[in-house]
Amino acid sequence: MRLGVDVGGTFTDLLLHDEKTQRTFEAKTPSTPEDQSIGVAAGVKLICEKAGISPSDIELILHGTTVATNAVLEGKGARVGLLVTEGFEYTLHLAKAWTPGPLFGWINMEKPDPLASLADTRGIPERMNARGEVVRELDIDKATALIDDLCSSGIEALTISLMHSYANAEHERALGAIVAERFPDIPVSLSSDILPEFREYDRAITTVMNDYVRPIMKRYLSRIEDRLKQEGVSARLHIVRSDGGLMSAAAASERPVHTVLSGPAGGVTSTVMLSRRSGISKLLAFDMGGTSTDVSVIIDGEATISRSTEVGMFPAKVPTLDVRSVGAGGGSIADVSELTGSLRVGPRSAGANPGPVSYGRGGTEPAVSDANVVLGYLPPVLLGGDMSLDVEGARKAVAGIGETLGLSPEDAAKGIIDIANEVMLGALRVITVQRGLDPREFGIVAFGGAGPLHANAIAELLGCYPVMVPPNPGVLSALGFLEADFKNEFVQTYIRSTVGLDPAEVWTRFEELEGKAKTWLKEQEVSADDASILYTLDLRYEQQGFEVSVDVSAHHVRQKGGMEPILADYHALHERLYGVRFTVPVELVALRVVARGATPPVNEKAPGGEGGEISAAVMETRPAYFDGAWHDTPHYDRNKLGVGSRVEGPAIIRQYDTTTVLLPAHYAEIDEHGNVLIWPISKGK
């Protein structure tokens, strides 16, 4: 039995899969921001009760966490000391001289303090060049004195990031050995271990970020393992990486920077699986939760991997799934600006506590969920009757917005929904239209607790159909964790022109990286049958400022083949991504080895029965507000809609973990995999 756990800003989602019976069980509990482990433990207890099993029956727990992300965004990380090459003490302050545009953004920019302060930074007398040759010998005596001074000042973690250490890590390792001997209790990260790549700022900030969140992650993982033991859970705990892979809890506590986009990764992984199973090659992942919405693009059954991301205003050069996030969710608060008198929605969120007004936990400001309640889109009870909503409280709160704007409660609620939709639409435009992709060629997968509430309206604006609502949309990210593979990358910077380059010189350098990959797979207890290794080269046109990763077959590496087919693949990939290819020489930048460990697929039982008389699935009929008027709208029990069932809008489809809104002039049909597919009636599908 495997358990996926996704901790969100409002709810903690859990999905339990029994491989023997091919059954799944789901549960949602309120998140506990003050200590996420409390909500996780409560969720484990609840789902075990629902499945009728003992906590000790769970064999594996796969957990996505926002602990690292929140620590950086909230500025609540550890006090980090930083050792750099003498003369480069201002690396984190100079950064990349980036400011937000246009001019107004620059004027209002509040530049955050670096994650390691200048007072906690020391310049070490030493220097390597880009070829890894010693230009200035490491002064051990001065370095020891500087380390003693810094490590005695109260720092909680130490980063060592020296110039060109990616080419030769000898000096970093020597400094690490000094710290380990004299201050064994202080955790140390070497940039040559965390990010052995060129570009000194990226390498320094990524390694500092790792140390900034490392003590917090260690404490969190220790707490959660203790709480799970108290509940009788003896399962192994694995953490989801930002690129959708898995790592052990021990590895996550040492390299937490690889978890900065852990939460959204599960939903993207599940969308990839849905694309492959449904045969719909182009899909947009639309994950709307209580606090934020995450969107991404799936093409030909594959997600895009980015080599860097941003956490707040800080870059992190780690492999991540290409996800765009905006501060719009079910808990996003609506208010009227005192300055302009206009309606605003988000990014402030009611969170899990107190939550929206309709949750009845003390919230007083209207949120997007309250607007859905007022319009009749959300029923008075959620979670299968476990959670009752305060309908009158929500209406009163939204009416307050309406009075200020001179609108009825219904029109105020509709305005809140429309603005939230536009914010989310902006994120979808960024990942499609602004990248030359036509959203009308894509379907959209709606998940998260609030995704199916808004997806039909989003699709209508963008023209992307079908809207796909999977069987477990509210806990789809947790399902994605169950379908994730173990994954890690090993990289070596190697900058050379490919003109006149001996290919054997490249392929032999893969051997050391491959050895590291195999060692890591053994540490993660991945069996030989499930293990695989992928090879890539990072290439760019000479004088270009970015690289493109090109896959290389294992056979080509073993046979030490020529560079011609690799370069041909590069030109074609560059043209597909950016619409142009050049005739200038190509430059090799880095070699990468990706280690993967496959996990068993989640094969759920197919939904039972064919679609019969849908009147049997009607739970009740309630008024809902569409197109400026109230309509008597049927509410359907999704569990009673079989394969082939067809429902015409307007309608509300209810299930344990979410509610789907079907707009007028649309219809929904259940496909062979149990997905709800929504199309405009005009499409005539």
Automatic annotation (TrEMBL):
Residues 2-181 form the Hydantoinase/oxoprolinase N-terminal domain. Residues 508-673 form the Acetophenone carboxylase-like C-terminal domain. SUPFAM superfamilies: Actin-like ATPase domain (SSF53067). InterPro entries: ACX-like_C, ATPase_NBD, Hydant_A_N, Hydantoinase_A, Oxoprolinase-like. Residues 203-489 form the Hydantoinase A/oxoprolinase domain. Pfam families: Hydant_A_C, Hydant_A_N, Hydantoinase_A. This is Hydantoinase/oxoprolinase family protein. It comes from Hoeflea alexandrii.
